[in-house]
Amino acid sequence: MADPSTSLPLTRASVAEARKLIEPFIHRTPVISSSSLSELASLPASGEGKAKPKLRLWFKCENFQKVGAFKARGAFHAIERLKKEPGWLEGGGRERGVVTHSSGNHAQALSLAARTNNIPAYIVMPTISAPPKIAATKGYGANVIFSGSTSTEREAVTAKVIEDTGARLVPPYDHPDIVLGQGTVGLEFQEQVELLIAEEAEKSGKPTTKKGLDAIITPCGGGGMLSGVALACEGTGIRVFGSEPSFQGGDDGKRGFESGSRITSVKTLTIADGLRTPVGAVPWSVIYERRLVSGLYAVTEEQIKSAMKLAYERLKVVIEPSSAVPLAVVLYDEGFRALVEREAGEEGWDVGVVFSGGNVELDKLGALFGGV
Amino acid sequence: MADPSTSLPLTRASVAEARKLIEPFIHRTPVISSSSLSELASLPASGEGKAKPKLRLWFKCENFQKVGAFKARGAFHAIERLKKEPGWLEGGGRERGVVTHSSGNHAQALSLAARTNNIPAYIVMPTISAPPKIAATKGYGANVIFSGSTSTEREAVTAKVIEDTGARLVPPYDHPDIVLGQGTVGLEFQEQVELLIAEEAEKSGKPTTKKGLDAIITPCGGGGMLSGVALACEGTGIRVFGSEPSFQGGDDGKRGFESGSRITSVKTLTIADGLRTPVGAVPWSVIYERRLVSGLYAVTEEQIKSAMKLAYERLKVVIEPSSAVPLAVVLYDEGFRALVEREAGEEGWDVGVVFSGGNVELDKLGALFGGV
């Protein structure tokens, strides 16, 4: 990883710089909408006195991103920044490669970004990782090194790899280069929805006062995506929200946001397996300290499954459980829905929902939904 | 239904006419590609002496079409043609509505097309139809009338509805207006791939001799889509292939094609439930009699499931089992693969695969894949 002191400042302009660097390597993923889901979201939940927000939903499909998740953005950006570090390319840094510990999408993202640049990648994974994830990571040409599954064990093995190889660490979220890379999703999303709203107005012949998104809601695990999107929206008037699973304290971001101090440890087995980590210090400096995020909301496992079912059946897209979390907030969280009803009024809000990834095996889906 | 004698002739030009009529009402669905699936398709299947065709795959996502299936095209076209029939609009035909018997995607497609035009729709469904399908059809504002599940029972109830209401029958596939409507998918597909290939060549800076698709493969149930796409490709040099499930004789189209006479009855419970019907007479007149189709291929239930799994896991799109049938042929049918190897040679073929629809419930998927 590039020394954080050489990173660009955490600003919207830096996200735009990151975008220029990674654009040749990543997909500009599509934005889709669904009138039936927007209508459903605008109905009050069953029960007395429930909020009736007027919502128009837009979905940014990072499940169609390279490696099937937004993580490709941060990983490619981290490598581009390393390439800009004086001496790294020429001094042999490139030959020594990059290393991370991850059993999830970041592992595959870093492997792909490294292979694309002809750089060795070392990925430390717990021996208990799912065989398809190990196979996928090896499929991108990475060297997989196994470790125990506690964070202490993983970090020890990673330290050993660094000692042996001289590889540079590229963490999954807690670094400015990663935050800025993930933030590019926010810039694209803004532009795409502006274009789609303008096209729609032209097609229907009905003029609209609406220019673009009123809010974006993203999942929050380590906070790389949430903080990056918050930076991308700085000064635009677009409100940014985070979303988490509540199961077994998985809502560490929300609890930290409300209490005022970051929660640094969390242990949950939520089905939203991309969101089991606590928020990192760098993302926190954006999310909480700079107050660029308007709020975080948490949903239950059942709500996540319901939202996932709707995404499959109405939108026909494959998303992983973590990706269904923001949609679940929009559909089921009374706090969020009451806020929209109050603030958006008659005109309603255009809300951007980030589908962060689509890496789920069909047999796991079977296990999740076979008994529904 | 419009009297077939008032339909346009079965030609490519008529498909283009149909397209003009339905364009305001349907989605121009996206075409996607996947280098990993194209690579996989270009590897020989395991075993000695297997074919090694060079394939580049393109997928036309009619699962993102209105009502989640290509059937919207034929239904909207049928209504547009009725509107052009002298006296139908003014003479009260519109008020008497339209009727069909279907428990599948055509039911929802006709319901939507009727509602859009403010026309009553009567849908005859077997009482044993899946409750979500009944609910979806009612959701589009149709009047659902129940019948027994044999074709005799369904037809009797339909005849009664026609007698009582004066509604016009819109069959699911066996009519020129339906065939021409479904064919529009072929015209769009050709144009979209030409554009994508040109864009890719420009982006990579590598000039290409390739201009567009070499072949299109579609599912074949009643044959509306296959015959329509065949018409759309007439005179273009693009070869058109059909694909079917082999389970319990579901490959009636293939058997008829090879024996020279249409098979008019089939009884299979293949998981590809959209393809359980025999090929209709009108589609047959295109597929076999005019020799616009180069061949039909059939795959097993396991091959369909494997292809479906790949579509979900690699492409992140939700498709119904019927939609996975052409992909299964491309990946697993040695006859098709040997043909491509032989005819396409070193340069390979750009093959267009039509994903016909995405209407599958998540719990059914669970049941299909829970035990994989």
The coarse silhouette of chain A is globular
Q: Strands of the biggest beta sheet of chain A: in what spatial order?
A: 1-2-10-7-8-9
CATH topology of the largest domain in chain A: Rossmann fold
How do the SSEs of chain A run, as a string of H and E? HEHEHHEHEHEHEHEHEHHEHHHEH
Number of helices of chain A: 15
Name of the level-1 CATH class of the largest domain in chain A = Alpha Beta
- Global Rg of chain A: 20 Å
β-strand number of chain A = 10
Largest interface: A-B, 28 and 28 residues
Task: Give your account of this protein's structure.
Two copies of one chain form a homodimer. Chain A is an alpha/beta fold. Chain A has two domains: about 5-70 and about 175-370, Rossmann fold (3-Layer(aba) Sandwich), CATH 3.40.50; about 70-170, Rossmann fold (3-Layer(aba) Sandwich). Helix content of chain A is about 45%, strand content about 15%. Chain A contains 15 helices and ten strands. Chain A has helices at about 10-20, 35-40, 70-85, 95, 105-115, 130-140, 150-165, 175-205, 225-235, 250-260, 280-290, 300-315, 325-330, 335-345, 360-370, and strands spanning about 30-35, 55-60, 100, 120-125, 145, 170, 215-220, 240-245, 295-300, 350-355. In chain A, strands 1-2-10-7-8-9 form a six-stranded mixed beta sheet, sandwiched between helices. The longest helix of chain A is centred in the middle third of the chain and has 29 residues, at about 175-205. Chain A is globular. The mean pLDDT of chain A is about 95. Chains A and B meet through helix 12 and helix 15 of A and helix 12 and helix 15 of B.
